[in-house]
Amino acid sequence: MRLKKVRNFTLITNNDISYNYRLGLPIEVYCIQSKKTIAFGRIAFFNNSVIIIHGHSYTRSSYLFFGVNHLEKSS
Question: Distance between CA atoms of 57 and 70, rounded to whole angstroms?
Answer without folding.
Answer: 22
